[in-house]
Amino acid sequence: MTDTDIPIPPSLSRAIDEKKKRLDSLRPLPADALQRLLHEIRLRHTYHSDAIEGNRLTLKETQLVLEEGITVGGKPLKDYLEAKDDAEAFDLMVRLVNDKASLTQETIQQLHEVVTQGLLERPGCYRTGNVRISGSPTTPPRPEHIIPLMDEFLSTVRKLKLHPVKKAAIIHYELTRIHPFWDGNGRVARLVMNFSLMREHYPPIVIQQQDRHEYYTALEKADAEDYADFAAFIARRVNESLQIYLSASSSADHLVPLMELSRGSPYSQEYLSLRARQGRLDAVKNEDIWYSSKRALKDYQGTIGRGD
What we know:
The protein is an all-alpha fold. It has 13 helices and three strands; from the N terminus they run H-H-H-H-H-H-H-H-H-H-E-H-H-E-E-H.
């Protein structure tokens, strides 16, 4: 498998590479800024990763659990345990990156153990029976095949000559395909994908629960060995996360709501929002609000000048 086997839109690929180059030129990022960024992504990753799996905590309730240890009545204890576990697993993932750990079966099982502590009888252990994925026509491999498939998966990952973003997407997909655990496979796959990205000096990403349908649809297409949609889906999240990191480091890249960006520009908020949804304006959607930057607006105006 090579880069040409997994196409993503050239404009998206160029945007990612250009942003990564600019971000690298700003390193090392100030420690306090980096800490704030990771703190925010940790919260949003925890909320959205759990919400995708059916957790009913709101973003604010998740924040109260993680930062204050406060629970709100009316929600199952399982939802609070999931939030606490996923945040602790995110912290473990960051430590593993900082320690320059390799991706191994033990690393993956370690993340699963933290993700499901207090939720499963044997956290961190591979399943010993057959499972079905709700809503999916694909049946995961039989339990006796898990260890050899994981060995093969990790051997293949080490040999892959792919762009780091595409490699992270394949790692995520293959882990969900093998489905090695009774539960928590999606949450672990998203953490391992971020581990892979951070090992290559990309920021971690957040897959928002609002994008759940697109996310699952792209994964199902990958079951037919059509990886393009899933790779592009992950690439868009990487592009967004790079923009968030640049926003904290460069005034020209500072993200503001489109309402604010429209002031002093020849465009209305509604027009900019349309261009953002179309992918014409480089923008980030955070909790249903679109954000963009002065640099992105200037680049968009340049495309108009070229007649694009």
